[in-house]
Amino acid sequence: MVNDLAARARQEFRPGQVVACEQQGSDFLFTCDNGVRLRLHVINDKILRFRYATDGQFAPDFSYALPPDQARTAPELLEFREKSDHYRITTARLICVLGKENLHTRILDRSGTVLCEDDKGFHWQYNDDTGNDLVLMSKQVQSGVCYYGLGDKPANMNLRGSRFTNWGTDTYGYVKGSDPLYKNIPFYLELQQKIAHGIFFDNTFKSYFDFAAERADVTSFWADGGEMNYYFIYGPTLLEVSQEYTRLTGPPELPPLWALGYHQCKWSYFPEQKFRDIAQGFRERQIPCDALYLDIDYMDGYRCFTWSPTHFPEPAKMVRELAEDGFKTVVIIDPGIKIDPEYEVYTEALEKDYFCRRADGPLMKGSVWPGLCNFPDYTRPAVREWWAGLFKGLIQDIGVKGVWNDMNEPAVFETGTFPADVRFDYDGHAGSHRKAHNVYGMQMARATNAGVKRFAYPNRPFTITRSTYSGGQRYSSGWTGDNLASWEHLWLANIQCQRLSISGFSFIGSDVGGFIDTPDGELYARWIALAAFHPFFRTHSSGDHGDQEPWSFGDQVTDLARHFISLRYRLLPYMYTAFWQYVQEGTPMLRPLVFLDQNDTNTYLRMAEFALGDNLLVCPITTPGVDGRWMYLPTGDWYYWWTDEVKAGGAEVWAVANLDRIPLFVKAGAVVPLAPVLQYVGQAPIEQLTLHVYFKNGTAESVHYDDGGEGYAYQEAGQQTVRRFTVAGSAQGLLLTQAIEGPYQPSYTTYQVVFHGLPTAAVQVEADGNMLDANDYATETNVTLPSVIVDASFGEIVVKLAAE
């Protein structure tokens, strides 16, 4: 007798013939003759969820990716039909056809264009070693398809032809093509026939994505365990796909405005006098800065929530005095808790059994910076609550304003991460490290954010994390990890921040100048010029490689750093508005060029150009020794920021950019609000904003949001204002209207309105029927433009132009 059980255990299984279908509202349950089940949820007219069970039983429906209190709206239209060989589900935007054999799936838009079709579709293999199913999904590759997203992958913007793994990993000094990295975002966008959709594979086990790499006609995604549980998200634009995904997984709250300022960090600033000297260096040189960071050397023997008595003997006094000069102190907290019977955090967690355990019961031990450590199980609600409470000393008592979570992939020296048999509570859905690894950093950030928020109130919290999972944007900002001081990494920083932004995680930046090694002055200047347009703006470096403050590269680079950091502070009203749009509408703050015009195939493979918000287009210089670059402008007219020269889109243009410039364009019709340069947010009340109005022959709308940038009055009492501007231009003149929503009264009472690109001279300017005197406004590059001073509550401004 031949024993073929081992071979049979490795065989591939697929769904059988559908024998039953049940509908309950917008949920459908399909049962096959071999016990396989598919539960199809019609989330709304644009989102379908597919959830498969191989043995007829679904596990409890639980996901860290989705907000627990998320409201679910019914689809506007839902029709269900059974045919001889398939079922058809129709919404207002989609048609889903399910074959009765093998549950083969095809999704079309309402015009009949095939958007997504199974190849093999769902299939699985049983893993004898773990007891888990290896769950797989394969899709046909449509003609001309491009793939985007997937978080922090350091690869070309279009992912086609590549394969990736999601398994959060401490990848020190990664390079282009390194995989996996720190973050685990199993979401990608697909563009084909100028129509976009997305796939979100909500599975926390180690997962894999093959974008037509192994076979040119098949794209696949799979995981080492858990369910085949994925969402199909329809656009039809890439921007809408990203919005829908971000709304599904939940946007963050608004950060404090100072968090969008400039941050300075190093491993490590100590002792206290060195930290104070860095602060003084910024103020003496008039370089704006809001936040200074303390890395692990501020602690007593790297014990979290402690202070070194020799390096920082009076932390509360230091933090308070720095705050008086506008600096917010941010400190690092890692997950490893030193095994030390004299250490209160350790003994309390030990007593309450809050540490992770191995399968047979012993506590999980691993070496990180403090030496041998135990690690909290952040997937347990009681542990998160305890962890949040630990921040009282740092936030409420000492006055720290932000917390930085590192090493939370989780990383362990020598072994890389935890052993696979480590057990986790997983909010009552117990599992091993195979299941919890990819959410460990996210749940640590969640607990940290809860603590900072509790003790910072009535102010807003600020946290930053290195590792996360889909939905982690609800709890923290992030950065792209331990990069290198190289031109390649400047290029990667641009790509990675764009990719994370369209993957739901907009509050992102890179270590300016590189964490490892030392940049020269030119590289640092070009990097800080790019990072001024990233939502999270921080220089960070390793102490092993020399100084990396903005004044560390000579007077010329000091002036350049001041120039670009000051530009960032002027742009804060615009940046904050873009963040508000991200929170309200799910729009990514950074948008690759293809997001601006997916009907133009010239944008599909472009990587350098990106939009910040609705109206700014940026293209960094990522090679040394050049005084400009070629870049592509999308459809429309664009003003070069530095000269006001107008360029027509749909073509490549040469952008002159010496070290004091970055290629930066403004969309015609835009209204861009700028603030005066302050040395830190809140240094003084802002009495006047400048509105830069860019002429367009036609109409365009812009928005400006303000709520003061701190506290919760905008939520609790509606203290916010949304100002919607409409520009209508013609050969005869320009009409600028303002519609004000909300009761919040900002500190500024007037605008200086600057008009760009008027085709002829302005002969008359009126605001709400009153004549205004026009004055000359000189830009920093000596372009002279007409401007007027108006009340900030104006309704309309009319500019009459001279006849040609």
Automatic annotation (TrEMBL):
InterPro entries: DUF5110, Gal_mutarotase_sf_dom, GH, Glyco_hydro_31_AS, Glyco_hydro_31_C, Glyco_hydro_31_N_dom, Glyco_hydro_31_TIM, Glyco_hydro_b. Residues 586-672 form the Glycosyl hydrolase family 31 C-terminal domain. Pfam families: DUF5110, Gal_mutarotas_2, Glyco_hydro_31_2nd, Glyco_hydro_31_3rd. Residues 38-210 form the Glycoside hydrolase family 31 N-terminal domain. The keyword Hydrolase applies. Residues 688-757 form the DUF5110 domain. Keywords: Glycosidase, Hydrolase. One of its GO terms (molecular function) is hydrolase activity. Residues 252-578 form the Glycoside hydrolase family 31 TIM barrel domain. Belongs to the glycosyl hydrolase 31 family. This is Glycoside hydrolase family 31 protein.
